[in-house]
Amino acid sequence: MISRFNLPSILEGYSQGYFLMADEQGHLGWYSSRQRTLIPLDNRFRYPKSLRRSLNQQTFTPAINRAFEAVCAGCANRDVTWISSDLLEVYRALHRAGWAHSFETWQGDQLAGGILGIVIGGAFIGESMFFNLPNGSKVAMVLLVEHLRRQGFILFDAQLQNPHLARFGSYIIKNQDYRYLLAQAVQLPCTFVVGDKSENPFL
User: Are 169 and 44 in contact (CB under 8 A)?
Assistant: First the structure.
């Protein structure tokens, strides 16, 4: 098992372009890929027209780290998952140290959806997402991109391509190009959580 307390080596792994996953037996290990999927933070980003009503009517309220544990549990709650109990412990340790975050949408007091990610400099490394209510995670994606833009992030790593991400304009780059961009991003002094609870609408 990769020690959940060895945070410097874990952060170094992510900073070098690797990511953690558990295999079918639950053994945790480092992985890489010949290609990486990115969510654009420029004008290439798009979203399904079906979300416009929810966005215009502000059906969901965004928050950061209001329910980190619940987002982790939601992301891991699927028939086939790479998020083992050991990996959940790693996420918790990273969260306590200020590196792992959840970006959420709420409808009243109900958690509608969320995105789990690791933040290093100006890179948001998306680990997983889930929803409890229709469009909950999709709206979270749109609002997260807006937040990352405001904070000066240059990289939103979605790791692996799928049809859902493609609807947001996700694109594939070679691993060599990804690592070059990642090396630039992790050096930026970006802030993901801004202010305190009294003044920050994302808390």
Answer: yes
DSSP E strands: which ranges in 23-107?
28-31, 35-38, 61-64, 100-107
Q: How confident is the model at residue 199 (pLDDT cuts 50, 70, 90)?
A: very low
pTM of the entire predicted model: 0.93
Please name the residues in contact with 105: beta carbons below 8 A apart, sequence gap of 6 or more: 60, 61, 62, 63, 111, 112, 113, 114, 136, 137, 139, 140, 143
Q: What is the pLDDT of residue 32?
A: 92
Give the C-alpha separation, 4 to 126, whole Å.
Answer: 19
Cβ neighbours around 35 below 10 Å, total = 13
Which residues fall within 8 angstroms of residue 6, CB to CB, at 6 or more apart?
none
Give the CATH architecture of domain 7-185. Answer: 3-Layer(aba) Sandwich (3.40)
What ranges do the domains of the chain cover?
A: 7-185
**Kind and range of the H or E element at 158?**
strand 155-159
